[in-house]
């Protein structure tokens, strides 16, 4: 394993390259980012903050990577150690010989997640919180179901738990599966006019600025390949059958969906990527203890929404996390 080096996000963060087994395209790596908390008396004395024994592992969504500094500070200010994983072929982990984001089975990410968890160091007696956005939320939900003794809580930010045409998924999936078998890298039809990116820019807060690398998070989504889509649909099928995640799950969602056929101000106050009502219903199949928080005015990434919705999202997350932590200490 390599060494921690300075990260592109600045002095508060470091990154570690995690070598993985090569695949058909060649060399594969994942990248773990860690937040460095500001020095405080708690680090010299016994840390009594509520999350002092918690590690958080964040996984991004499709056509994305980790860049949300404030999200990391939310956790470190409460005592937690925060880690974010740029999965293979995304962001910091993308190499020139690779097809961006391309995998044929979501279990391929098990190696990335295992490497990230092993690289944390000093894990004795620490609790693990999984935090996933969109496709990362689907990936972590499936992982938590397959590894029921690993995580202590799962928090999902607009997780992609169901296909946008959910009722048609049983009919679509076999055709996609057949195409994936014979022409795995065929491009799947999609229409992304860049409205989601525009909505984020429209509601950007100058008091909470973010810098995004468009090479890693393009204004319009990366090409969707058929084999990858087949893997996603298989994941949706597993969620629909029930995952049985044994630990508490919190799902944060926008209150409404807006269809992005043309630009309108509505797109700055709604999820223009997923059908949030379908996601809310699918979330109830994750496990026996699921909280669904619907946030008025939120975007697909609730923590990138306009100020009012963003503050509401953080307040709800704080309330849920405090309740979860208090329940474990009883």
Structural overview:
A hairpin with a 2-residue loop joins strand 1 and strand 2 (10-23). The protein has one domain (5-329): Rossmann fold, CATH 3.40.50.1820. The chain contains eight helices and nine strands. It has a nine-stranded mixed beta sheet with strand order 1-2-3-5-4-6-7-8-9, sandwiched between helices. The protein has helices at 69-76, 109-119, 135-146, 169-182, 195-202, 226-241, 276-283, 307-329, and strands at residues 5-7, 10-23, 26-35, 54-59, 81-86, 127-133, 153-157, 249-254, 290-295. By secondary structure, the chain is of the alpha/beta class. Helix content is 30%, strand content 19%. The model has no long low-confidence stretch (mean pLDDT 93). It is globular, with a radius of gyration of 19 Å.
Strand content: 15-25%
* Category from helices, strands and their pairing: alpha/beta
Give the N-to-C terminal Cα separation. Answer: 39 Å
State the total count of DSSP E strands: 9
Unreliable sequence segments: none
Kindly identify the CATH topology: Rossmann fold
Q: Largest sheet, if any?
A: 9 strands, mixed
Helix content: 25-40%
Mean pLDDT comes to 93
Pattern of helices and strands? EEEEHEHEHEHHHEHEH
What's the tally of helices? 8
């Amino acid at each position: 394993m390599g060494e921690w080096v300075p990260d592109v996000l600045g002095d508060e963060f470091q990154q570690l390259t995690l070598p993985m087994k090569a695949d058909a395209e060649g060399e594969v790596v994942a990248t773990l980012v860690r937040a460095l908390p500001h020095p405080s008396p708690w680090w010299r004395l016994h840390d009594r903050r509520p999350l002092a024994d918690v590690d958080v592992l964040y996984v991004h969504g499709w056509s994305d990577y980790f860049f949300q500094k404030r999200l990391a500070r939310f956790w470190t200010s409460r005592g937690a150690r925060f880690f974010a994983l740029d999965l293979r072929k995304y962001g910091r982990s993308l190499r020139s010989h690779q097809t961006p984001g391309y995998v044929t089975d979501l279990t391929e990410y098990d190696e990335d997640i295992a490497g990230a968890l092993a690289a944390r160091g000093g894990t004795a007696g620490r609790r693990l919180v999984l935090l996933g956005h969109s496709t990362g939320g689907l990936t972590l939900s499936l992982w938590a179901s397959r590894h029921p003794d690993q995580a202590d809580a799962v928090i999902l930010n607009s997780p992609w738990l169901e296909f946008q045409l959910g009722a048609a998924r049983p009919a679509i999936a076999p055709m996609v599966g057949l195409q994936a078998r014979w022409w795995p890298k065929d491009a799947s039809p999609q229409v992304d006019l860049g409205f989601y990116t525009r909505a984020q820019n429209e509601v950007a807060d100058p008091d909470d600025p973010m810098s995004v690398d468009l090479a890693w998070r393009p204004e319009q989504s990366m090409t969707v390949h058929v084999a990858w889509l087949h893997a996603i649909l298989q994941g949706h099928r597993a969620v629909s059958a029930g995952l049985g995640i044994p630990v508490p799950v919190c799902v944060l969602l926008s209150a409404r969906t807006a269809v992005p056929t043309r630009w309108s101000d509505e797109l700055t106050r709604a999820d223009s990527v997923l059908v949030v009502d379908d996601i809310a219903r699918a979330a109830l199949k994750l496990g026996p203890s699921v909280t669904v928080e619907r946030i008025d005015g939120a975007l697909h990434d609730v923590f990138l929404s306009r100020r009012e919705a963003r503050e509401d999202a953080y307040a709800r997350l704080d309330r849920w996390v405090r309740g979860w932590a208090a329940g474990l200490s009883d």
